[in-house]
Design brief:
Layout (H helix, E strand, L loop, with lengths): L2 E5 L4 H11 L5 E6 L4 H6 L5 E5 L5 H14 L5 E4 L15 H26 L6 E5 L15 H20 L6 E6 L6 H11 L3 H10 L3 H14 L8 E3 L9
Parallel strand pairs: 1-2, 1-4, 2-3, 4-5, 5-6, 6-7
Helix pairs in contact: 1-8, 3-4, 4-5, 6-7
Protein name: NAD(P)-binding protein
GO molecular function: oxidoreductase activity, acting on the CH-OH group of donors, NAD or NADP as acceptor
Pfam families: adh_short
């Protein structure tokens, strides 16, 4: 039996992951939600899915989550940090303090502050695999040509933090990897595309057609989880082919 933790499973990629992972009834899936998710709640009918509430932007919620997690399972084998916000549609000079704060608190500080609650349970496992969902938008070298500055900067901070974490835990047999899922047709993606297209329906349709479904993305993530090993600790890869993404 493998025990999985999916942080941010109420919709999109996280929900698809919880669904795919829980189809193996011998495994256990701990899935978190910030708000009540009807679709995620349906998965608990499988009996191997447990839902815990967690708002990664709230310190009290993080502390309460840690206590509930320890009371729910003795160990975690594989943790997937998926929760994120993607609302940035403005260039740097037009990005508000509120937008910077929201993206950084949720996308980078959130995972960094939640991880210590999970770490002791990972230490009780021999598998010790941890995956953080990132994006090429956070690559300083590649620099995507879209005005998603707050989102990209928050992911760049996440990339730095996770890379440091992988180095600090290198002697403890961890596999800590950043994953770029590619273009995925989530609610957040569709909303951002609609704004950036600026009414250009052809451009908007073209962008949507490039995207894979959350279900396809989940299957690619599962394959990546299986393939990536301790020797891959500290990498930043795209899930489709496990090729390196530039930091």
């Amino acid at each position: 039996m493998v025990t999985y933790l999916v942080i941010g499973a109420s919709q999109g990629i996280g929900l698809a992951l919880a669904d795919a992972l829980s189809k193996n009834r011998e495994d256990k899936v701990i899935a978190t939600q910030r708000k009540e998710s009807t679709e995620l709640r349906k998965l608990t009918e499988r009996k191997n899915v447990v839902i815990l509430n967690l708002d990664v932007a709230d310190q009290k919620s993080i502390a309460e989550f840690g206590e509930k997690l320890k009371a729910t399972v003795d160990s975690i084998d594989i943790a997937i940090f998926n929760s994120a916000v993607a609302k940035a549609t403005t260039p740097l000079l037009e990005t508000t303090a509120e937008s910077w704060t929201e993206h950084f608190v949720t996308n980078s500080l959130g995972p960094v502050l939640v991880y210590p609650q999970v770490h002791p349970l990972l230490l009780k496992s021999d598998i010790r695999k941890v995956f953080f969902m990132s994006s090429t938008a956070g690559s300083i070298q590649e620099q995507v040509p879209y005005p998603v500055d707050a989102y990209g900067a928050s992911k760049a901070h996440l990339n730095y933090s996770v890379r440091k974490l992988s180095q600090e835990l290198a002697g403890e047999h961890f596999t800590i990897v950043l994953l770029h899922p590619g273009t995925v047709s989530t609610n957040a993606f569709n909303a951002v595309v609609s704004i950036l297209a600026g009414g250009d329906t052809e451009l908007e349709e073209g962008a949507r057609n490039m995207a894979i479904t959350p279900e396809t993305c989940a299957q690619q993530i599962l394959a990546a989880i299986k393939a990536l090993e301790e020797k891959d600790n500290g990498r930043f890869v795209q899930i489709s082919d496990l090729e390196n993404v530039s930091f």
